[in-house]
From TrEMBL:
Natural source organism: Sphingomonas changnyeongensis
Source taxonomy: Bacteria, Pseudomonadati, Pseudomonadota, Alphaproteobacteria, Sphingomonadales
One GO-annotated biological process of the protein: riboflavin biosynthetic process
Cofactor(s) for this UniProt protein: Zn(2+)
Protein name: Riboflavin biosynthesis protein RibD
Gene: ribD
Pathway of action: Cofactor biosynthesis; riboflavin biosynthesis; 5-amino-6-(D-ribitylamino)uracil from GTP: step 2/4; Cofactor biosynthesis; riboflavin biosynthesis; 5-amino-6-(D-ribitylamino)uracil from GTP: step 3/4
Catalytic activity: 2,5-diamino-6-hydroxy-4-(5-phosphoribosylamino)-pyrimidine + H2O + H(+) = 5-amino-6-(5-phospho-D-ribosylamino)uracil + NH4(+); 5-amino-6-(5-phospho-D-ribitylamino)uracil + NADP(+) = 5-amino-6-(5-phospho-D-ribosylamino)uracil + NADPH + H(+)
Length: 332
């Protein structure tokens, strides 16, 4: 399918819905779906917390009988594998009688991997899939980056969050760090937390600060991530039943999440960077100088400056009150 026109517009709407489920649908992808008939939306949905119901099921329920002859725009190929948790979305769309399905991506999960599209075509439904370089495909890869990272690399997507002064400090020399950034930046950081299933700090940060690591935004409190402490010294006290302890960065593969937020401290950040496990950097920079404070990142074995260039691509930048937010993605 060529990008542009009405198809691109409706796919953008489906992508916006997919973002509503980011970090909340483990173990399923956060899919968005819009069902359109005669130029009007008759159903919309996104994968709900815990992974069910799927986006297509929600949208079809809204559309009802009007779905017959409509076009369904989905951010990922409708699933075709059987599950005890519900019917395959390809079968639901076929039973509803939609005339056409437009998908942003083919599902990399080997249980579907093209079978969903094949099943739809066998039912007489026209299927269009975005070209890999098209805007809809790129948007879907961004929206479902955590799930896709798990599919490709067998681990969650890792975001490293840093709150810095202009001279790269995260605290005074005595450890005081409240607050370097302003309220707008801190609110955005809580929004980031709500989009991750798990949040990780090092043992030193846990013992020194006893951070709550929750979400303190009205209406989003229930999306607080599970807390992970990285400790080479074993057991950690004051953890809840859903919280975990890991010994090293490579243990994240076993965590039940697709989106992992790493918040501190400097040694933990360095460990993840040294292991090349950071996929995304979220940096809040406050307009203040500390001088002689604690650095954001410890040494992680960089041998020369040439090796540092070209690793990070700026994805977004904006002002949050008086602070600047910069978001970078790892080039791989």
């Amino acid at each position: 399918m060529a990008p542009g026109g009405a198809d691109a517009r409706w796919l953008d709407a489906a992508l916006a819905l997919a973002m509503r489920g980011q970090g909340r649908t483990w173990p399923n992808p956060n899919v968005g779906c819009v069902i359109v008939k005669d130029g009007c939306v008759i159903g919309r949905g996104w994968t709900r917390p815990g992974g069910r119901p799927h986006a297509e099921a929600v949208a079809l329920m809204q559309a009802g009988e009007a779905a017959r002859g409509a076009t369904a725009y989905v951010t990922l190929e409708p699933c075709a594998h059987d599950s005890a948790r519900g019917p395959a979305c390809a079968d639901l769309l076929a039973a509803a009688g939609v005339a056409r399905v437009v998908s942003a991506l083919t599902d990399p999960d080997p249980r579907t991997a093209g079978r969903g599209h094949d099943r739809l075509r066998a039912a007489g439904i026209a299927v269009d899939v975005c070209a890999a370089e098209a805007g809809g495909a790129a948007g879907a890869r961004r929206a479902m980056a955590g799930w896709l990272t798990r599919q490709q690399h067998g681990r969650p997507r890792v975001t490293l969050k840093l709150g810095l002064s202009l001279d790269g400090c995260i605290a005074l020399a005595n450890g005081e760090s409240r607050w370097i950034t302003g309220p707008e930046a801190r609110a955005h950081a809580h929004l980031e937390r709500s989009r991750h299933e798990a949040i990780l700090v090092g043992r030193g940060t846990w013992d020194a600060d006893r951070p709550r690591l929750d979400v303190r935004l009205p209406g989003l409190e229930r999306f607080a991530p599970a807390r992970i402490v990285m400790s080479a010294r074993g057991a950690v006290d004051r953890l809840g039943p859903d919280d975990r302890v890991i010994a090293a960065p490579d243990a994240i593969a076993g965590l039940p999440c697709d989106n992992l937020l790493v918040e501190g401290g400097a040694g933990t950040a360095a460990a993840f960077l040294a292991a090349d496990l950071v996929d995304r950097l979220v940096i809040y920079r406050a307009p203040l100088l500390i001088g002689g404070g604690r650095g954001a990142v410890g040494g992680f074995g960089l041998a020369d400056l040439a090796a540092a260039h070209g690793r990070w691509a700026l994805q977004d930048t904006r002002m949050l009150g008086t602070d600047r937010l910069d978001i970078y993605e790892r080039r791989r």
